[in-house]
Every structure is written in C-alpha cells, then in structure tokens.
Amino acid sequence: MLNFGANYSRRLFQNRVVNWQYHAEILPVALESDPVSLTTVTLVSPPQTSPIPPETSIPVSACHSQSGTYTLTFEYSETCSRRWTIGEGISPIGFDWNFLPRRKVQPFLLAHGGNMYSTQPIPTTGAGSFNFTFDFGVGIELFRSKSKSVRADYRFHHISDHNTSTVNPGIDNGLFTLTYAFGR
User: Fold this and answer.
1) More reliable by pLDDT, 74 or 93
2) Region 2-37+80-182: CATH code
3) Please, are residues 143 and 183 in contact by the beta-carbon 8 Å criterion?
4) Beta-bridge partner residues of 19
5) How far apart, in Å, are the Cα atoms of 184 and each of 9, 25, 167?
6) Can you give the pLDDT at residue 40?
7) pLDDT band (50, 70, 90) for residue 54
8) pLDDT cut 70: percent of the chain above it
9) DSSP structure string for 149-177
10) With contact defined as beta carbons under 8 Å apart, do 178 and 152 qualify?
11) How far is CA 103 from CA 2, 15, 143, in A?
C-alpha cells in the first residue's frame, strides 16, 4: 500500500496524562499492489509421422477399436510480477490518544475505520472494488512548536469486502506513516 492524503483532528478531552482526539482521514490516492503469477503450460507431443501425404484422400471405412501407446510431453513455465491498482479511501471514524500531552515528544495510539474504492477488484478478480478498512497502531509525535509537529507511526491495516462479493480474501498490511501536522 502507498497512500497520499490529508487528515483532520479535533480534541475531545485532555488532561495531564492523555489528549484524546477525533481523527478522520481522506486518501484521494491509494495505491495497492498484489503479486501476480502467470502460468503457461504447453503440450508438446511427438511429431506426427504419417505414411500418407496430406494431399491424399482416404476413403472412410467401418469404425473399429484400436489400441496403442502414445507419449505426451508438457512444458511448464511460471512468471511472477506485480499488479498495481489505484483507488481512493476515507476513514471518517478514528481516534488518537496522545500520552504526556505537555511534553515535546509524545507517544500515541491510533485506530480508524472506513472504506476504499478501487478501479478494479482487489486483491483478486473475484473480489470486490468496494472494500471496508480498519487500522490500529502506535507512533511518536515530535512538536516543533505549539501548533506544528511531525508524526511517525506504524499501523496494522486491513482491507476486506465483508463478503459482499463472491470471493473475500482480504488484505493485511503493515504501514509506516509519516505526517507533517499544523494547526491554529
């Protein structure tokens, strides 16, 4: 996954220990990559040897059973590549819990829920283009001033269509997020 977007935060509660915030994210560009394998099987049979030239016509006679031996040979090859799919997502339900809110460096927890729409079904062709998402993670926020900070977090991110299509394999990722935050 590779996401580009913006988020909105609003403080819900703050004391000396925790700063609890509502947090929504919008991802106008969400790139998702899946491994793809192409398997090729080729039937290679022994060359046909016929005593009759192809231009000769043979009269059809009565059908009768025959037996014999015939050997078949297969060639197999597999190639692997990646398929990139573009989509967009929104996580309107999210919360952040910054700990030690009066310090310059603050550890935090986060969790979000939302959905993602992609231009083609992900991760396989039988899956859906509309998927639900959730993530949760931990991070650290470094305040450069009272209203500006840099955030880095690691998230467990899940995508699934919740059985709305014939196939629902789901995708689990570990995401690293880097954010520049500014406010009033």
Assistant:
1) 93
2) 2.40.160.20
3) no
4) 14, 98
5) 12, 19, 46
6) 76
7) low
8) 82
9) EEEEEEEEEEEE-TTSSS----EEEEEEE
10) yes
11) 31, 12, 8
